[in-house]
Amino acid sequence: MRRPIVVGNWKMNGRRASVDHLIAGLRAVGGVDVAVCPPAIFIRQVVEGLGGKGIGVGAQDVSLYEQDGAYTGEVSASMLSDAGCSYVIVGHSERRALCGETDEDVARKFANALRAGLCPILCVGETLEEREQGVTESVVARQLDAVLGVSGVAAFERALIAYEPVWAIGTGRTATPEQAQQVHAFIRARLAAHDAGVASRARIQYGGSMKPENAAELMAMPDIDGGLIGGASLKAEDFMAICAAAGGAA
Ligand code: PEP
Fold this sequence. Notes:
It contains eleven helices and eight strands. With 250 residues, it is α/β, with parallel strands linked by helices. It has an eight-stranded parallel β-barrel, surrounded by six helices. It is globular. Phosphoenolpyruvate binds at residues 9, 164, 169-170, 207-210, 228-232.
């Protein structure tokens, strides 16, 4: 039985006061793992503010570079770990599209995160154009294989995958439970081709306009093990309702 996990991706939002307000509304939920990924500058505030609440903290990105040194503006995996993070999102579609991150970059970041003891959350997913061309599975396979090639399948005992169709992110347009399940099952089968045991234990989250109204039906699908939540994670009440739905699906 896989324990669901719900992670909030706050993206580039917040100020110290609004972050405190959001923290105050968060609490652990039975039967489900919960974490939030604030902008890097708020990580310490969130780690300290959530102390004792049983909620993990993650970062939204990590440097390609592993060792300290002359990498202006970069934050390494080891620094994130030292700051109290347990998770880090890698390969979010916004970073792939806006910052030109390649599959190879994502695979390096994933490996750096693992080596620093962080749990990477690998985001994969197709654009609307790719879905319409019928290449969803080959796109997701390519993104996944890049990481498998560097870190191997056993890495997914200590990592998460988030299937995030790009056309559903921040658009209000959610994949149907059946559409999401189909890709989740494909991802699990791809892992199973390497190791059936790891595949059966790997947790695969859905992300893309998940909200309190659609969370339960998405998370009721057999291969959906929680959610990566963008917009709805900025309202504690909505985020908590999604976590409760995940707890219900556990
Ligand atoms: C995300 O950015 O990871 C995400 C899922 O965003 P939203 O929930 O706003 O679609």
